[in-house]
Amino acid sequence: MSIADNLLKYKSELEEQGIKLVAVSKHQPAEAVLEAYNAGQRVFGENLVQEMADKQAQLPSDIEWHLIGHLQTNKVKYIAPFVKLIESVDSLKLLKEINKQALKNNRVIDCLLQIYIADEDTKFGLGFDEAIELLRSDEFQELKNIRITGLMGIATNTALEGQTKAEFQELKVLFDGIKVSFFRKEESFKEISMGMSSDYKLAIEQGSTMVRIGSNIFGKRVIKHWKA
Ligand SMILES: *Cc1c(COP(=O)(O)O)cnc(C)c1O
Questions:
Q1: What is the CATH number of the domain that holds 110?
Q2: Cα(46) to centroid of ligand 1, in Å?
Q3: Is residue 59 part of a domain?
Q4: What is the CA(134)–ligand 1 centre distance, in A?
Q5: Cα of 71 vs its chain's centroid, Å
Q6: d(CA 60, CA 41)
Q7: Which of 72, 183, 184, 195 has its CA 20 to 30 A from that of 172?
Q8: CA pair distance 33, 25, nearest whole angstrom
Q9: Residues 186-207, buried b or exposed e (16+ Cβ, 10 A)?
């Protein structure tokens, strides 16, 4: 099946359920993104700053770019003018830098807090306690150019469905708790970004509002090392 065929299949399946689709185009050439765009997709996820900035410069301006990979503070400035959602905020230090760059660009940048739910050493993210500590801090309260619109999590890469399900469930429980404690009045705090090609169905069963699907749409990732 072509990229367009895959995309349309996911779009209709997800839209029926009111779930947002982030098409993860990392390590795919701009032409592949354009094929999905021409099939109607507008939201794309990238995990590298340079790759996202390069594609943003070449592709239609109404694309909504989501950063889904680990973000270094010194690189925030390259995406601050255009990024639609930073899904991978994993420290107060990073959030402060995003706020600073958003202010410079005279905008408010939407962010998700990335929560560590996996049973693996390699994944970035805030622990449950760290997320709550961040939200409670006075420094956080002072940031006016960022808006937290939800949480993001990556489950363990495992064939054990029970484990994946439990990890997604934990994220949903944390989301509900944070919503009540910190964002009771903010309707904008509503996203739970969880689920990828291999586990999006489980994620949706556990309350995901946004899934990030790459390989099932685009096939194998073709570019190993992005060059500007
Ligand atoms: C690569 C990636 C995805 C997409 O993974 P697929 O298995 O290709 O669907 C989703 N989320 C994050 C954070 C990623 O880095």
A1: 3.20.20.10
A2: 9
A3: yes
A4: 26
A5: 12
A6: 11
A7: 72
A8: 6
A9: eeebebbbbbbeebbebbbebe
Distances (CA, A) of 126 to 11, 114, 129, 190, 203: 30, 6, 8, 18, 19
Q: What is the pLDDT of residues 19-63, one digit of tens each?
A: 999 999 999 999 999 999 999 999 999 999 999 999 999 999 999
Could you tell me the residue range of the domain that residue 10 belongs to?
Answer: 3-218
Does residue 214 line the site of ligand 1, with CB under 6 A?
yes
pTM of the model: 0.97
Instruction: Report yes or no on 223 lying in a domain.
Output: no
Q: Which two tokens stand for residue 154?
A: 């990556």
215 lines ligand 1 (CB under 6 A): yes
Report whether 38 contacts 7 (CB < 8 A).
Answer: no
Query: pLDDT by residue (tens digit) across 139-151?
Result: 999 999 999 999 9
Q: Domain for residue 228, yes or no?
A: no
Q: Which residue's CA is minimally distant from atom 11 of ligand 1?
A: 212
Q: How many domains does the chain have?
A: 1
The 10 Å CB-count burial string (b at 16+, else e) for 87-99 is bbbbbbebbbbbb
User: Backbone phi, then psi, for 210, in 5-degree steps?
Assistant: -150, 125
146-153 vs 191-193, strand pairing mode: parallel
pLDDT tens per residue across span 150-169: 999 999 999 999 999 999 99
Does residue 134 lie within any of the structural domains? yes
Calculate Rg over the CA atoms of the chain: 17
